[in-house]
Design a protein that fits this description.
The strands form four sheets. Strands 3-2-1-4-5-6-11 form a seven-stranded parallel sheet, sandwiched between helices. The termini are far apart. Helix content is 33%, strand content 16%. β5, α3 and β6 form a beta-alpha-beta unit. 42% of the residues are buried. With 331 residues, the protein is of the alpha/beta class. It binds nicotinamide-adenine-dinucleotide (NAD) and uridine-5'-diphosphate (2 copies). Nicotinamide-adenine-dinucleotide binds next to α1, β2, α2 and β5. This is UDP-glucuronate decarboxylase. Catalyzes the NAD-dependent decarboxylation of UDP-glucuronic acid to UDP-xylose. Necessary for the biosynthesis of the core tetrasaccharide in glycosaminoglycan biosynthesis.
Length: 331
Amino acid sequence: SKTTPYQHHTAAVHSFGKVPLGLKRKGLRIVVTGGAGFVGSHLVDRLIERGDSVIVVDNFFTGRKENVMHHFGNPRFELIRHDVVEPLLLEVDQIYHLACPASPTNVVGTLNMLGLAKRIGARFLLTSTSEVYGDPLQHPQKETYWGNVNPIGVRSCYDEGKRTAETLTMDYHRGAEVEVRIARIFNTYGPRMCLDDGRVVSNFVAQALRKEPLTVYGDGKQTRSFQYVSDLVEGLMRLMEGEHVGPFNLGNPGEFTMLELAKVVQETIDPEAKIEYRPNTEDDPHKRKPDITKAKEQLGWEPKVDLHTGLPLMVSDFRQRIFGDHKEGGT
Ligand code: NAD
Ligand code: UDP
Ligand code: UDP
């Protein structure tokens, strides 16, 4: 293979990456890009709890130090402020690549992390998205479906960025024999979710707590499937440790219209909460629901937390962050 400026680092590489989940083994060295974010910080908690050494690489674009602060002082935890658009030199066994701004830099960051994985022989996991299916013509969506994405729409940068990231991941797998894993994540919610990034669950919960009307876009009959974050993290870890490349849908097949979601939020937080209709954005997918047969069969995984159980767990965290009783980043 070709000589790169980084090759002198290769000597330090070990290969604990192939030990199956559940076996006693030496702790792994794991990078989590985007580890100060919503999903990443929960993943970091599980990896640290399992005995691994974790390096979080994050530029705090949407993530927060508060999400990982409880690990400060632990010698198995390290936090690096770094933009993955810039090359990165590290020696690790596994790379969970979650860092992802909804912009073209998504692709460059993924390329760098694949280059890193190739140089050090680490296993690489990409967190892709159900958005690769676009506004799907197949329902529910199986991994074999190629999707229906508008390349020039307002949401395209994210969708196409992730599609390109999947392509690069498979090319590094086939061309450079990098061990890769691809997860297609469906809508996920839980504690530490961004308060103000406009996602429907965080909007409704924050609105109900603040006694503001719940903003339903369009007629509210569009559907989504909402997965609790602990289920997702379990799926990501099983995927990383298992033998299958994927892609795998990781999502909760329970399907809700936005009006049904609003009702669950009313029941959980405030039965008096009003609903206010707003015009919907262009290209909003009408339906989305994962077919998770493949993950069930090959990873032995399925979600355990339904919306009625998961939502209250998120609400207490949002309450603390909105009304500020000085506790951050609940669990
Ligand atoms: P998040 O915004 O909370 O986390 C992303 C993290 O990446 C943040 O901490 C952010 O600061 C960091 N980051 C962004 N750009 C970076 C860069 N250039 N360099 C270094 N760090 C950078 O989002 P999340 O919900 O935790 O999502 C994690 C991953 O899962 C993302 O790849 C996302 O596309 C994917 N995903 C999430 C969902 C969901 O519903 N939450 C659904 C599908 C896919
Ligand atoms: N890269 C990195 N860390 C490494 C190795 C590579 O960030 O340890 C980056 C490198 O800067 C390049 C990208 O990953 O931009 C792809 O690397 P690769 O070696 O696959 O491509 P090449 O350098 O041969 O074009
Ligand atoms: N949505 C809504 N009210 C909001 C925010 C979003 O009705 O305050 C709708 C949005 O139009 C979409 C669905 O909720 O149909 C899910 O939106 P989100 O941005 O959470 O996820 P995505 O569209 O990426 O699946």
